[in-house]
Amino acid sequence: MLLYIESKAFPFKTFVLQCTATDTIARVRAQILHILHELGRGDHQFRFRYKGQYLRDAYTIEDYKIIDNSIVKMVPMAKRSESFLDIQSNLGVSLDMGSGYNSDVKLALEKEVGQLKWRENMLMDFQGMMYIHFLAAFLAVFTVYWYAAIWIFVFFLYAVTQCPAYSHLTGFVGVSGFWHKRYMIIYGVLSIAVLGVSLGLAIYILLQILDHGCSNWNFSGGCSHHVVYSLIFFTIHFIFVLISNILCWLLLRNFTFKTGDILEKFLVMSRDIDKVITSAKSGKVKEQRNAAFELATLATTGDDNKFRIVTEGGLEVLISLGLSSDEATQEYAAEALAELLTVPAIQDQFVDMGGITTLTTLLHSSDARVVQEAATALSYIVSDSEDNKAHVVSDRGMDDLAHAAKNATITTQRIIAGVFLELAFNADIRAQMAHMNTPTIALIELCKSQDSETQRLSLQTLELIAIESADVIFFQENMLDILLGLASTTLDEEIYLLAGKILLYYAENTQTCSQMLDKDNLKDSLSQFAKTSDPILQKVVAKIVMSTVEEPNLGIRAKELGLQDILVYIRENAADRDVWNMADEGIQIFANDDFFRSQPTHASSSESMGSLSSIRKPIMASRASLQSH
Prior knowledge:
This protein has 629 residues and is mainly alpha-helical.
């Protein structure tokens, strides 16, 4: 299969690579390293990206579902400003950028280049030797066995016309480019046959000369010049064919070597951890960047390697690299930390080292990838340990999360929404959130996301905050507009249910209920919510409508808006008997004009309708029940 590699660092050049589906990304990178080596850009650090996903060296092309003729992006590991500094350093400006790739990778690259260049040079020499067969065929005509020229010439034709050519940059070319191994095997077998015949004829002629004796150097008969010439020719021809045969088998052995055979093991990080950490401590930009990238790559290959990194002091190094002035180094360090923190045992050690401060600091980065990786790392910490949640919210941690949520990518917003929800499950933190304005504002902004999962997580968190204290919800001016606007932006009934539960708080408070009745889209939104087969959602909508008539003056406005039509629809499409009874009773209340002229207690109505807690699912009973609704 063919892969087309594009890079902004080489805007006028597209690299075309021949690969197989089972090749690792490291092997593909090795091919590019060879090309960059020839271009004099051997220190250019890069990684691959396909369909927005960064590719790991240890995985194969097939793992990422990369198909034939795909375009893969080669992304410089340095940011644009660092790339400019790199160019300056190449022009002679003194900068402490470091050497780029580690010495092991460079030595492996040089060794591979040496083997491939040896193949290229030897194959060129071998091709040149093949033309000597033509000279041999011509000279064989003058031997005693002139007909030997026939098989030597046929051998020459095959050897020359089928011989492959090779360049260490472009690979095998020529007629037998795809069958280079087969050619060498056939040539090796044929050459053995030819040298066997030449050796046999040389021995036979030698015996003939010895029988004659050539006394007194009389070159006649069996010792004629013609016979001696034949002996010399077949002897030399035997030696030549023997040399070409040996070279043939050496080349065949070399053909088993492929680009990346040596580099691959270094690129997938079989390198010693202590050497990587030493590079990270070097203080040189390129070496630190590469070390952070290598640690991130190694961390993805298994829990054993994660513990190796921690054992060798890599956790402390990564915390330090996360605060580097180099954005690329920050990104790879955050990526490595996110991978390491998937292991709960490492999380506790990370928290004890004060690493959470590094992650919350990275939430303020201008690099979207850095923010995403930092948020991902925090999500692991808050989901696996109740004790560590307190460390996250300390020192303005929720303010940092709120800041990151404002301009983050969709993926990052979803992660942050999940972090807020995990924090809200903790009673102490939830009480703290209920008395803070910043987290609620951030959650409301997340509710505006086009991602339904982000909306769901944010609404769940807001509901938990409302259970703790609804006042912080009421204080938000645009909260009602967002909740009612969900009916026109999504068809997700789970989101409708969550929005409806929060709207219940507005409906049961006289002041906020009045605000809700002022919204022009109230009826349309509640009507959309009511178009469901979920009895819980139908009960919530019915309760919202019935709550508007608990105050006569509000009930008149509700009746003018025609909210009773929603109850009619619910009754006609009731999912169960309780829903039907509730809707029917609400319709009777709206139809009772005397109800709006007085202010009855409606005790019986309250009993039939049930309290708010009987309609709303017991959210705090368990996390699973909340997530299921």
